[in-house]
Write a structure and sequence with these properties.
Blueprint: E1 2-6, E2 14-17, E3 27-37, H1 40-46, E4 63-64, E5 68-76, E6 86-89, H2 99-102, E7 118-119, E8 122-123, E9 130-134, E10 138-140, H3 146-149, H4 155-164, E11 175-179, H5 183-195, E12 199-204, H6 207-216, E13 220-223, H7 228-235, E14 241-246, H8 251-260, E15 261-269, E16 289-292, H9 298-309, E17 317-321, H10 325-333, E18 340-344
Parallel strand pairs: 7-8, 11-12, 11-14, 12-13, 14-15, 15-16, 17-18
Antiparallel strand pairs: 1-2, 1-4, 3-5, 3-9, 3-18, 5-6, 6-10
Helix pairs in contact: 4-5
């Protein structure tokens, strides 16, 4: 079969002929029905090396890209699922026995360095006709087609986890700022709309993205310019936002996050832009914390699937053929993809 493989650091991926994989102990064979193209794949291909980004040091090259995956069970260890069952695949492949896993926080597995990553992230992913995955990472689908569900596994899961951890402080008298209204930011707006009553403020350089955000439920859209901080402060009665979700993560967005955060608030950095937030006493409002996140748990993925199958979550998806993957990444790099691109073998 043809697979879109990452073969060398700082080198574009390419199509390679590989055999259909064979599932090992505890693994299922999945026929891919849809695999999402993620902006982080651009970091993988063009920026990261074990020296520049140590978390990838355990990855073994080459591997097939594609970490937002869904399809149909074909065989292997089925964990109670019948052959032909449509499933989504959790992108966090965990050990199941460490403290984090026992508490359900599979995305923070403490032995992940020994697992050599997950599908599309150090191990073979979904940009092919077939892939294998741990059977305990599969969530069955009932109402969604696999291509519809694929983006839920990363764009959905990552944004959901970031939102969910902040819900206790997102009361009706609070505000939340979403910086960056791409695929993840759009889903975050939908989760905020469904799960809390806080005022939702979005920030983007694109007027079109701000319009999309308003349609999804945002209360206010702020252009990303020199006036953004003042506009957000004015919209929050000078208090600032209780939560700032930064889906970009560059220097400028981190500075903005610090400027508009509220006392006892939280800045959540999700974007992989590599920015730095200079810190000293007084750099943030008193009681304000800064956290980073990584994906979400397998249990949270099941919750997202339930939301989507109830019709309350409507991801903005563009479908492409798998052979168009190089063009899709070019368009993604040039910010020409609205929402999420899904590749179908």
């Amino acid at each position: 079969m043809k697979a879109f493989r990452f073969t060398e650091w700082l080198h574009p991926a390419e199509f390679v002929d590989v055999p259909v994989p064979e599932p090992g102990h505890g693994e299922a064979l999945i026929r891919i029905g849809g695999a999402g193209a993620c902006h982080s794949d651009l970091h993988i291909m063009h920026e990261w090396t074990p020296e520049s980004f140590p978390p990838v040091a355990a990855w073994s090259l080459p591997f097939t890209l594609g970490h937002e995956n869904a399809g149909w069970v074909e065989g292997g260890s089925l964990a109670g699922l019948e052959v032909g069952t449509p499933v989504v695949i959790s992108p966090t492949w965990s050990c199941g026995v460490c403290r984090s896993c026992r508490q359900g926080a599979t995305n923070y597995c403490e032995k992940e360095s020994k697992l050599s990553g997950a599908g599309g992230l150090g191990r073979d992913g979904g940009f092919a006709e077939y892939m294998v995955a741990p059977a305990n990472c599969l969530i069955p689908l009932r109402e969604l087609e696999p291509w519809q569900a694929a983006p839920l596994t990363d764009a959905g899961l990552t944004s959901y986890h970031a939102v969910k951890r902040c819900l206790p402080i997102l009361t009706p008298d609070a505000s939340v700022v979403v910086i960056g209204v791409g695929g993840l930011g759009q889903m975050a707006i939908e989760f905020l709309r469904e799960l809390c009553a806080a005022q939702i403020i979005t920030v983007s350089r694109s007027e079109a993205s701000l319009a999309i955000a308003k349609d999804l439920g945002a209360h206010l859209g702020v252009p990303s310019d020199d006036n953004a901080s003042a506009e957000i402060r004015a919209a929050t009665n000078g208090l600032g936002a209780m939560v700032v979700l930064d889906f970009v993560g560059v220097d400028a967005t981190l500075v903005l996050a610090a400027q508009v955060a509220r006392k006892q608030g939280q800045i959540v950095v999700i974007g992989l832009g590599g920015g730095t937030l200079p810190f000293q006493y007084g750099a943030l409002p008193n009681g304000c914390s800064v956290v980073t996140t990584l994906g979400g748990s397998t249990g949270e993925l099941a919750e997202i699937v339930a939301l989507a199958e109830s019709g309350r979550l409507r991801p903005n998806i563009q479908k492409f053929k798998l052979e168009e993957v190089a063009e899709v990444y070019k368009r993604l790099e040039e910010n020409q993809i609205s929402g999420r691109a899904v590749l179908v073998p």
